[in-house]
Write a structure and sequence with these properties.
552 residues; alpha/beta; Rossmann fold; 6-stranded antiparallel sheet; 6-stranded mixed sheet; 19 helices; 57% helix; 18% strand
């Protein structure tokens, strides 16, 4: 579960630290106090989008940290499968530092990619945003919910179908590329033969271009090389050096201390003689051959021409050659290859139909169970005699997720037929339907923490009470964090936090504090009575809190 949230320099929040507890954690506060910023900070820490305005004015960066406790063996194994090590004490720290031009995410001080971060957090927490219930208006969401409900049974089939579908698409693409008349194929085959011949006749080899380029440079500058070396040879006046060596030798005959200098003179004389001999030998060999020059130039032109057409390296040219040969073989054996591909496609299509049918069967059975669970949950949420059905329909084509389309149908009035959810549900009803979905799914998944950002949209009175009871029910097996404006929901809190906006040193700041029993009752009174908190409102709030405590 989520143990702690720390936020620094994010929007209106200068610094905030919240220690969440088990059960139902409630966050309340005036509109605009910064409640949604807190939930937004969690989303950001989990890899969500970051706005340029996220960093608090005057700060260099923003920082968000989530501290989780990982208790279950299944979660540990799932995280380790992502190459994330969970310490022995089970604590996992997720952090994100937001800079003006980038952001850095870490898990236990190890930098991770956004993809890996989302994979990890999907195992730990589920967030219901303010407007997520609107996604129920889109059919693809319905299938997503159904698959989440029957994940254990359906996941392996979905993976198998996705793999087969990729192969199926590849076959379709290849067969599509083989369309065209006989005349066109003959022209292409002739051109392939020409290209293969051009490459093979070029007879390229690794390292040849570098060798020829070096020889070409040498021949291109042969005259300049000869002139420079001639000047160097003339500068080596060996007669003068010999005279100097003899003079030093004679002087050493008079002073034994000159023996070292004499030896050095001998060495220099020998080196100069060798140098002069080497230069002379090079000059004798350095003869410009016009024919050799033309041959090298022509060969380099051939190499460059081939590489410009088929690749920038010998390796790339050879790869292109193999591709041309393969394509020529396809063209020369066109009918046989096409028949083989068509058979392969037909076999794969047969397998896809079989697997998709099996997945449809799984989904249809799960849809019936899900619909019944949803109906029961909706009745708990103050729907009257609600009818809830989930249709699973077959599409006329394959997809990576099978060939099914799913849709929720509902009737909220006795005697009326079920109709598509998008056609009949109001905003408040959609909120309750989404809560019912989260309730049902909470029993099937292993995610320990659920966050609801204003799940109470469009509801009040008795319905609000039912929603509060449902949230409390979920919190018995999951940690629930909920932002609300309704006292009925707030009264059920196991941990109650107030979010307050104030002005400090000319700057607007958001503060969060955990409320005690009496402070919680006073906050309930504010939710009940608004600005005027009378004794009657306080009495009502206290009674509401006591009733909630007894119902736990």
């Amino acid at each position: 579960m989520l143990l702690e949230l720390q936020v620094k320099n994010l929007a209106l929040i200068e610094q905030a630290r919240i220690e969440f507890g088990e059960g139902l954690n409630i966050l309340t506060g005036e509109t605009g106090a910064g409640k949604s910023i807190l939930i937004g900070s969690v989303n950001m820490a989990l890899g969500g989008k970051v706005s340029r305005d996220s960093i608090r004015q005057g700060a260099e960066n923003a920082y968000i940290e989530l501290l989780f406790s990982v208790d279950s063996k299944e979660q540990r194994e799932a995280l380790e499968a992502l190459d994330i090590t969970v310490p022995e004490d089970g604590t996992l720290i997720l952090s994100r530092r937001i800079l003006p031009s980038r952001s850095i995410s870490r898990i236990n001080d190890e930098t991770v990619t956004a993809v890996k971060l989302k994979q990890a957090t999907s195992l730990l927490i589920d967030i219901h945003g303010q407007h997520e219930h609107q996604s129920l208006l889109h059919l693809h969401k319905h299938l997503e919910i159904l698959d989440a409900y029957c994940r254990t049974e359906a996941e392996s089939w979905k993976e198998k179908i996705a793999s087969e579908y990729r192969q199926y698409q590849a076959l379709e693409s290849r067969l599509s590329s083989m369309e065209g008349g006989l005349e066109e194929r003959l022209r292409e085959a002739d051109f392939c033969r020409f290209e293969i011949q051009s490459i093979e006749e070029a007879a390229l080899r690794e390292g040849e271009e570098e060798e020829l380029a070096a020889r070409y440079r040498k021949l291109s500058h042969a005259r300049r090389i000869a002139e420079e070396l001639s000047e160097a040879y003339q500068a080596l006046d060996t007669d003068a050096l010999s005279r100097a060596v003899r003079a030093v030798d004679q002087a050493a005959g008079y002073d034994p201390e000159l023996k070292g200098i004499r030896d050095q003179a001998y060495d220099v004389e020998s080196l100069v003689h060798d140098l002069a001999h080497g230069i002379q030998a090079y000059m004798a060999d350095c003869v410009f051959d016009p024919e050799e020059f033309r041959q090298i130039e022509g060969r380099l032109d051939t190499i460059h021409s081939i590489q410009s057409r088929y690749g920038n390296s010998v390796e790339a040219v050879f790869q292109a050659l193999e591709e041309k040969k393969k394509r020529l073989e396809e063209l020369e054996n066109f009918d046989q290859i096409r028949l083989g591909l068509e058979k392969e496609k037909a076999d794969l299509e047969k397998q896809l139909r079989k697997d998709c049918s099996r997945l449809t069967e799984i989904r249809s059975q799960a849809a019936a169970r899900l619909a019944e669970r949803m109906r029961e949950s909706l009745l708990d949420l103050n729907f009257l005699d609600v009818q809830f059905v989930m249709e699973v329909r077959q599409l006329d084509h394959f997809t990576s997720e099978g060939w099914d389309e799913a849709e929720f149908l509902i009737s909220t009035n006795p005697g009326e037929p079920v109709k598509p959810l998008r056609a009949v549900a109001s905003g408040g009803e959609l909120s309750r339907i989404m809560l019912a979905i989260k309730t049902v799914l909470a029993d099937t998944d292993q995610i320990p923490t659920l966050i609801f950002d204003e799940i109470d949209t469009g509801i009040s009175g008795r319905t609000a009470q039912k929603v509060s009871e449902k949230l409390k029910e979920i919190s018995r097996t999951h940690q629930v964090i909920c932002i609300t404006h309704l006292p009925q929901i707030a009264s059920m809190a196991d941990c109650h936090f107030e979010i307050e906006k104030s002005v400090r040193e000319g700057k607007t700041v958001t503060q969060i504090c955990r409320l005690g029993q009496e402070e919680s009752i006073r906050e309930l009174a504010r939710l009940l009575g608004g600005a005027q908190i009378t004794d009657a409102v306080l009495k009502n709030a206290r009674e509401m809190k006591e009733l909630a405590e007894r119902s736990k």
